[in-house]
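Can't paste images in this forum, so I'm doing it all in text. The chain is below; anyone willing to post the predicted structure tokens underneath?
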Amino acid sequence: MPVMPINRHSVKVPNEIFLADPEFHKSSNVDILIGAEYFFDLLLMGKSRAPNQTAVLQETVFGWIFSGRHNSPQFSKQQAQAKNKVACNLMKFHDLPILWELREESSTKLRSDEEQAAESHFLQSTKRLGSGRDENSDLQTQYIDCVEGYLGEGHMSLFSNQEASRPGYYHPHHAVIKEDSLTTKTRVVFDGSAKTSTGVSLNDMFMIGPTIQDDLFSIVTRFRSHPVVITADIQQMYRQIRVTDNDRFYQKVLWRKNQDEPIKTYSLNTVTFADDEKDAFPEATKILKRDFYVDDLQTGAKTINEARQLRDELIRLLQKGGFNLRKWASNKPELSQDLSSETSNKYMSLEPSDTIKALGIHWGPKSDSMLYSVNLSDSNDRATKRSILSQCSKLFDPLGLIDPVIVVGKIIIQQLWKHQVGWDDQVPPEVHEMWLEYKKQLPLLNTVRYQRCIVLNSSIDSQLHGFCDASEKAYGACLYLRSTDNRGNHHCELIRSKSRVASLKTMTLPKLELCAAALLVQLFNSTIRSLQIDFSKKVFCSDSTVALNWINSPPHMLLTFVTNRVSEIQATTKPTDWRHVPTLDNPADCISRGQGPHDFLNNTLWTHGPQWLSCHENNWPQFDFKLSEVPEKRSPKTVVSFTITQAGINILIKYSNFKKLQRVIAYCVRFIRNLKIRVKTPRQMGPLLPNELNSASRIILKWTQYEVFSSEIRALSKGKQVDQKSSLFRLNPFLDDGLIRVGGRLDRAPIPESQKHPIILPKNHHVTKLIIRVELLKKLHAGTNATLYGVRETYH
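Text version of the structure:
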């Protein structure tokens, strides 16, 4: 099914072939999906490929089908990007089993080519303006008022007949009612994801830019570390950013106030900035980049005066861009009340007694506590996988503060997958009983309260303590902040936690314990980046002696699964940071086993950790464990260690003939290979084969590059860019199987790979001169271009 219509005449289909879908070139809706288990039963022997086409004609029981990639001449660059984007989205689509899959998590944020292009386009095409920036009659009135507000404020304007006839995109729009909103109850939402007659929406055509704000978890975690906090949001943020005239044709809307008026075509003039002012507002600029999530602000400071200064600086900075901050709230009432002295109400502040929902978190400024609101359906409809999943998804807990309860819902969902229950089938009796008991207790979570600030006032010392645990059902980790004030008082508070349901694939408990330890390290890394706190001590605890022995072992002595996770753990923490703790003193045990809301409310261990953490360190119990032999260890016979000293690769300059150097290296590689192979495998003898010579050439090229570009290779191997002072920086280099190649935008060009991304050779190097000499002898008097072509074709 093509994402876009393709030119039927560009596809050469023999007349004698009967097509299963004669209109295969048209983009339309999918009628039916056939399971993969039937796919190969439908295929027949016939297959044909037209000349100069990458797609194929495949015979099936339904007739012949057209399949593969087709580059239609009518595709523009933007259409091709949209097509690839849709295909990519389908490939990345995942189902709920991701909740229990074992996967590696990376903290490295690498920007794709599309993200870089999107950011570049934004910087080049935007500029600061001088200003800086239906049956329900009530609903109808509010809807009209909202749209007329767009017109009155210049955010929407009428197109002339000539402008309206230009190609573009029409946005469907509808009302969204938010009863708990303190400002606008009814809002008009414009849908850029609606598909057109081509099967593609406006959103499909957009480049996806990089994420430039901090993630929600980091912002909320940091929000809990400030003694004094303030929150606000930007009024009509998207409507303060004006689009260019050329782009307005892709923001068309149809509108009339009542049925007596003709329908007219309008354009949205605004989209449905900090570096400019960073010198004048340095602190506010930093907060604007760090503590905003879209249009919501959550930030703070150590004192009221610092918070007030930050608030006023943010107001002035955002006014420069035409943005207005409003709905102010703070745990210190004076920070929101002294805004009332303004002549207008544009700095609207909230009552301290109001409960605020910001970034999905309910926060009471007066009590300075975080709470939960659970509103589940009271319907007596039968429980199905669809309804259970829908109600479980309403439990939003970004910091994992109620993870012991959340993990029970994950386990129930996993059981439904394990029983292969359909979306609307009746669930098995044992799961149904478990769900009803769980659902009945969930409203108890409305009484849960957490102290917002996790640090003692006048704190002089902070420590981070982590716990991890696993069971056959689930595994998880939790982090606690232990702070000490100038009077010697100690206080321990839960920061955040994370849970995973155990994989459906059978796995030993020690391996799951190790997965929990790796999860704790991931949680630790993300938390450290979020909190602006210097910790005097970091302690990690587990009740698994096997996992602790693995963590204290050299990774190369262990088998692959264990090696990968131990390496990850040791990359951030030291084995001496890890301690053994009894299960009764391990709060992560609450996650691994799960708890119903009733048991969770009576859990004194979870919120503040083990009691001894709030005591002086001299009173901490000593939980020692002995290092011993562990499972999943490599046999000593297979362990080989090397000590390599790099003192220059002199062999490269020993020969004055490249072919001789190539053959010497090839024979050396063959000799080493013959020493390693077992008796059952035949040894290589006789003349050198082409693949051996090619392999030797690659080795020579790698050594040559390493001699000159060692720092560039180290940077690229870590996923970083080369230094801007490097001679290779302008070539956009990348590593391909250990070799540095020229980057660029020729990926889809119809030219050989060696011309798209040629290997980089250092000038004036002995090997480079040998290679050029060989090609000059091949193509005597052929010129520079022919010589370069020969080099690229031979050494690609």
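The longest helix spans residues 690-717. The first strand starts at residue 43 and ends at 48.
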